[in-house]
Amino acid sequence: MTTALIRPTADLYDSWAAAVNEFDGVHIDGSGLQAPVVPGRVTLDALIRDAAVLADTTVAPPEDRVHNDLYWIVDDREVVGFLSFRHTLNDWLREAGGHIGYAVRPSRRRQGYASAALALALDRAREIGLERVFITCDDDNVASARTIERAGGVLQDISDQTERGHSLLRRYWIAL
């Protein structure tokens, strides 16, 4: 397994579409896509444009957004998941979203991809000078909680975000 984070690219369209399809149209954490998610060339082209805008730190991000590096988690040119690294936190991210969001496609879970991708995202956080990152997962997502804790995550609290469409959230800080 050689896990890497790459920017969205049309070169991996078929693999991206297959990965997105495994989520059956629901929201995919870290993907930069809004539910219902239907893969297609137009969707990917828009995602690539949006990713470029959000990653460009020379211009202010659109209102209610923050600078954000959108990545695909890949293994040998197969898209196995998605990761979003936000450079700063706005009000919503400070409560529920965090600096890092990720998802691994169902057929590739429990193979170490989330841990490897999170480690790479923490390297990116160090590159831009962050001293710690905030990360959340649903309280019932035991696998994600373990991944975060293995990466050094310290539980801040369990927050009730049901009014924002979430379940109970485990909220962690990882010191860098």
Blueprint (SSEs and pairs):
Layout: E1 3-6, H1 13-21, H2 41-55, E2 68-75, E3 78-86, H3 91-97, E4 100-104, H4 113-127, E5 132-138, H5 142-150, E6 154-160, E7 168-175
Antiparallel strand pairs: 1-2, 2-3, 3-4, 5-7, 6-7
What are the main properties of this structure?
single chain, 176 residues, alpha+beta, Aminopeptidase, 3-stranded antiparallel β-sheet, 7 strands
Describe this structure in words.
By secondary structure, the chain is of the alpha+beta class. It has one domain: Aminopeptidase (3-Layer(aba) Sandwich), CATH 3.40.630.30. It is 31% helix and 27% strand. The protein has 5 helices and 7 strands. The strands form 2 sheets. Strands 1-2-3-4 form a 4-stranded antiparallel sheet, with helices on both faces. The radius of gyration is 15 Å and the shape is globular. The mean pLDDT is 94.
Mean pLDDT: 94
What letter string, H or E per element, gives the SSE order?
EHHEEHEHEHEE
Q: Total strand count, please?
A: 7
Tell me the β content.
Answer: 25-35%
CATH fold-level assignment: Aminopeptidase
Which strand order spans the largest sheet, edge to edge or round the barrel? 1-2-3-4
Total number of distinct structural domains: 1
State the gist of this model.
Residues 31-176 form the N-acetyltransferase domain. By secondary structure, the chain is α+β, with helices and mostly antiparallel strands. It has helices at residues 13-21, 41-55, 91-97, 113-127, 142-150, and strands at 3-6, 68-75, 78-86, 100-104, 132-138, 154-160, 168-175.
